[in-house]
Amino acid sequence: MFEKIRGLSLGLLLLFSLGVRADDSKAVLRNYTAQLIAPGPTASASPVALAPATAKQLKEAQTAFMARDDKFLTLTAELIQSGQMTAALAANNDNAQFIMGSLLMAAARTESKAVEPPATGRWQGAVPKAIELWEKSAAAGNMDAQLMLAHFYTVGENVPQDLTKAQRLLEQAAAAGNEPARRALESLSP
After folding, report:
1. pLDDT band at 31 (very low <50, low <70, confident <90, very high)
2. Residue 110: pLDDT above 90?
3. Residue 89 and residue 95: Cα distance in Å, rounded?
4. Looking at residues 127-147, what average pLDDT do you find?
5. Is 86 in contact with 31 (CB distance < 8 Å)?
6. Residue 7 vs residue 56, higher pLDDT
7. Model confidence pLDDT, tens digit, residues 32-68
8. Which among 97, 94, 100, 87 is positioned nearest to 31, based on CA atoms?
9. Above pLDDT 70, what percent of the chain?
10. Nearest Cα to 11, choosing from 51, 75, 90, 64?
11. Which listed residue, 53, 59, 109, 148, has the most CB atoms within 10 A of its CB?
12. pTM over 0.85
């Protein structure tokens, strides 16, 4: 039922483990995601309206991510290096929340495959932070976050299984025009 969503989840791992052409961008992404879950005080930007160019670049990065396009790495690294990702997160931008939640989940999954036991690695807090960011993004109407969370709630991965919540998320995404969510809903119907 959620094969495509599972494929996206597994595709997250590729961003951290197989990207050969984007080593510098990957380093920027890893460092930034590590800072998001680091204990202690963190610097944050004042919540201000984002420049239209930044909002456009965030949307492009999310679209590239969902398409598994390598330009995602470059776009996201540029947003981080310019300070715009921090500003976007402070402004509660749903695209930034989705992107960083996805990167945190990828980091946690990559780490869990390399470290035993997985909960002791430096990415220990990544999964709860990723879910938190996806929840915020989904609540703001981000269809990709709704779809990703629906998968996790359906299978009970990293969250308690909650089919009612999964169906609600799919209904929201489908109502906004998300075709994979519509198909997933159809497969839930008897």
Report:
1. confident
2. no
3. 9
4. 94
5. no
6. 56
7. 777 777 765 444 444 557 888 898 999 999 998 888 8
8. 100
9. 74
10. 64
11. 148
12. no
pLDDT at 70: 82
Q: How many CB atoms lie within 10 A of CB 177?
A: 9
- Paired tokens of 8: 């996206």
Position 76: which residue type?
T
How many residues does this entry show for the chain? 190
Instruction: Give the CA angle between residues 52, 57, 59 to the nearest 5°.
Output: 95
The span from the CA of 18 to the CA of 11, in Å, is 10
Q: Which amino acid is at 81?
A: Q
Got the DSSP string for the chain? --HHHHHHHHHHHHHHHT-STTHHHHHHHHHHHHHHH-SS--------PPPHHHHHHHHHHHHHHHTT-THHHHHHHHHHHTTHHHHHHHTT-HHHHHHHHHHHHHHHHHHHHHSSSGGGSTTTTHHHHHHHHHHHHHHTT-HHHHHHHHHHHHHTSSS---HHHHHHHHHHHHHTT-HHHHHHHHHH--
Report residue 3 CA to chain centroid gap: 18
Q: How far is CA 100 from CA 61, 78, 136, in A?
A: 11, 14, 12
pLDDT for 65: 87
